[in-house]
TrEMBL record:
UniProt-listed InterPro entries: GntR_C, TF_FadR/GntR_C, Tscrpt_reg_HTH_GntR, WH-like_DNA-bd_sf, WH_DNA-bd_sf
UniProt key word DNA-binding: yes
UniProt cross-references to PANTHER family, sorted A to Z: GLUCONATE OPERON TRANSCRIPTIONAL REPRESSOR (PTHR43537:SF24), TRANSCRIPTIONAL REGULATOR, GNTR FAMILY (PTHR43537)
Protein's name according to its UniProt entry: GntR family transcriptional regulator
CDD domains, sorted: WHTH_GntR
Pfam family name, one: FCD
Organism: Paradevosia tibetensis
Length: 249
């Protein structure tokens, strides 16, 4: 197995301090209605997932039940459910003698993800354009505006999430269920890498240029231009991540 790299910031051991602001937006779990308890679980999971995707909790950081319980004022039962979901989304692994830790990605795994992602996103664009109505094209254009708006605000996580939704929309419109399912399975890991790529100097602007090229091709209904722009967009993102890994490795 190749070397593993730490993405993002250095680990912060005190999760209570890390989630000091986030926890304020999460109601403390009580004996309320099941729907209210479910809402708390969803909010806590989103806070933890977002912290991992944004790099606020670095790969390799150990997550303990006690720290998560104390950080959010929730029960161990709720924490265990959150842990299962983190494992299911490949955001955390159980490692012998360490317990639950934030997942790390080797260079080889990153290269694999980008190779697969390139093909899947190109397929999504191609299948979409083959059947897209004028209304579908307008929705795609609106997605482009949202992406550029998020980019101009410097909202890297927002841009990653919007791109995921855009790809899901294109895959569903193009009736390419398998491509959509695989992209969804990889979504969180892809978003982690998207955010990391955009943290590289100049990559946010490069990504926005890529979005403009993709949307221009779609609006023109130019299948070849759209697919090529998609491949270039993904390739440049991958190159940015690998530059980071080489520098940190």
């Amino acid at each position: 197995m190749g070397p593993r790299y730490d993405f993002g910031r250095k680990p912060m051991n005190d999760l209570r301090k890390l989630f000091e602001i986030d926890a304020a937006s999460v109601a403390v779990e009580g004996e309320g209605e099941p729907q209210a308890r479910k809402l708390v679980r969803e909010r806590v999971f989103e806070q933890v997932r977002n912290a991992i995707v944004e790099g606020r909790i670095a790969p390799g950081t150990r997550l303990t039940e006690r720290e998560l319980c104390e950080a959010f004022g929730i029960s161990r039962t709720v924490v265990r459910e959150i842990v299962r979901r983190l494992e299911a989304e490949k955001l955390a692994d159980v490692i012998a003698h360490r317990g639950l830790t934030v997942a790390t990605l080797s260079r080889k795994r990153v290269e694999e993800i980008y190779e697969i992602r390139t093909e899947l996103e190109a397929i999504a664009v191609r299948s979409f354009l083959k059947v897209a109505t004028d209304e579908d094209i307008e929705v795609a254009r609106e997605y482009g505006e949202k992406l550029l708006d998020a980019g101009q605000r410097g909202d890297k996580v927002g841009m990653a999430e919007i791109m995921s939704s855009f790809l899901r929309f294109m895959a569903e419109t193009g009736d390419n269920r398998i491509a959509g399912e695989i992209l969804e399975q990889l979504r969180t890991r892809i978003n982690m890498l998207r955010v990391l790529a955009m943290a590289e100097p100049g990559q946010l602007e490069t990504g926005m240029e890529g979005v403009r090229a993709i949307i221009a091709g779609i609006v023109a209904r130019d299948l070849e231009a759209s697919e090529n722009a998609t491949r270039v967009y993904v390739r440049r993102s991958g190159e940015a991540v690998l530059r980071h890994m080489d520098r940190e490795g």
